[in-house]
Amino acid sequence: MPNVPAEPRPGEGRPPCRIRVQRPGPFLVEGPVEVELEDGTVVSSDRFQVALCTCRRSRRYPWCDTSHRRTARKAADRPGEPRAAKEPAPDDAP
């Protein structure tokens, strides 16, 4: 069978890690996890689920700190801000 490895895999006997993708937003990964960064540094979390940043705006990278939400709100209209007043309709007086 093509999907059966010839050699045992690391973590054999454990269920596969599940990653949920949300757009826009972080990758949600069932933990515990270890993440190897570009520079070779390994960071780990023992939590049952972690959010991995995909926008790179997080101050706690690679962990998501919801910075993507703050940036998205700046682009949208903010409630409570004054809007331009509409001009009154001209009177239909005879």
UniProtKB/TrEMBL annotation:
Iron-binding zinc finger CDGSH type domain location: 30-74
InterPro entries the record matches: FeS-contain_CDGSH-typ, MitoNEET_CISD
Keyword Membrane carried by entry: no
Region described as Disordered: 1-20, 67-94
Listed Basic and acidic residues bias regions: 74-94
Alphabetical UniProt keywords: 2Fe-2S, Iron, Iron-sulfur, Metal-binding
Pfam family, one: zf-CDGSH
Protein name: CDGSH iron-sulfur domain-containing protein
Organism (species): Streptomyces thermocoprophilus
